[in-house]
């Protein structure tokens, strides 16, 4: 049986194909201003017995080409459990939300907390701050690790924090210190969300921000636990949707 999962997020769209229980194909593209057209390009000439959608755009996909849709929470629990069967806690920092999920045996969702009311502490927040510092998103994490010390970023509102960063730059504050302070602020927010669901081993860090080396290191230090990161953390939701298509709950 050939199945697929499609994760339509605010920043990226991920597709995962599974054939006989194994991942046979995966791809990640930008969501852009026209997610429906991006999905059609991803799916062009591809055929599945069942396609399950997840993410912000799951209902749009189900109305047009997907057979079923599931929540991001369920999709990430299934996807992380597939990569790490002993997974009990998940942190997903995506483009515009952060999720903390408590997982039981078999990838069953036990509890979750979600920050989706604004972009504070998400990938979008880091993207805007990187631009303010004249860095790429990847460079932001690397530069932050060069800092010896930090400056306190008092606001997590993306608009106010950007103004705060601009002021620090004007006062001659070194970029590594500002970058480190931004990462500490995101770490504080993520750690607080995790503690609301209870942090247990194994802890999996998923989503695009999981590629950020500084944030991973800071969270490990703050929580006193190693963070497991999938080889491609951006496909976890799409993988979970594909696993759901295979009948996994």
Written overview of the protein:
With 249 residues, the protein is α/β, with parallel strands linked by helices. The protein has 2 domains: 1-84 and 231-249, ATPase, nucleotide binding domain (Nucleotidyltransferase, domain 5); 87-229, ATPase, nucleotide binding domain (Nucleotidyltransferase, domain 5). The protein contains 9 helices and 10 strands. It has helices at residues 35-43, 58-64, 72-83, 123-132, 137-144, 158-170, 175-197, 213-223, 236-245; strands at 2-8, 12-19, 22-30, 50-55, 68-69, 89-93, 98-103, 109-115, 203-206, 227-228. A hairpin with a 2-residue loop joins strand 2 and strand 3 (22-30). The radius of gyration is 18 Å and the shape is globular.
Number of strand elements: 10
The 3D shape can be described as globular
CATH C-level label of the largest domain = Alpha Beta
Summed over residues and divided by their number, the pLDDT gives a mean of 93
Annotated CATH topology of the largest domain: Nucleotidyltransferase, domain 5
Portion of residues in helices? 40-55%
Strand-residue proportion: 15-25%
What is the succession of H and E elements? EEEHEHEHEEEHHHHEHEH
- The stretches of 5 or more residues where confidence is low (pLDDT under 50) are none
Determine the N-to-C terminus distance: 17 Å
Helix run count: 9
| Total domain modules | 2
Question: Considering the protein shown, what is the CATH homologous superfamily of the largest domain?
Answer: ATPase, nucleotide binding domain
Structural class: alpha/beta
Largest beta-sheet details: 5 strands, mixed
Rg, Å, rounded: 18 Å
User: What is the architecture of the largest domain at the second tier of CATH?
Assistant: 2-Layer Sandwich
Question: What topology, given as strand order, has the largest sheet?
Answer: 3-2-1-4-5
